[in-house]
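<context>
A single protein, sequence plus fold
<entry> Chain with its tokenised backbone below
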Amino acid sequence: MAGAPGPAADPPVHPPSMGGGAAERWLPGRAGPAVNAFTDLFTVGVCALLAWESVRYVLSSHGSGEMAFGRLPVWVAATILPMAFALIGLRYLLRLYHHARQALGMEGLE
């Protein structure tokens, strides 16, 4: 099928990005950023809780002496968990700041 459009001709399908959610599209004015600020706050709280619990897990596994892979202790492998949850929480904290400023009228709507 010479000349037929192939997969390269189709536009790529991307999942929805973290910005510009349904709240901003469907709610009027500053209501969208206010809803996004609330969901960002919830996500920050969940990430903080998961980071705290994963720190507790790392500390408890440090004393257990369990091995993850060969001679690698579990606590060394699990150290990535609190760092990852903290970074995700930090990202949403920055988003919360941005959306709160938009909701309060201190920053322009996008």
Observations:
- The beta strands are 67-69, 72-73.
- Residues 29-103 form one domain.
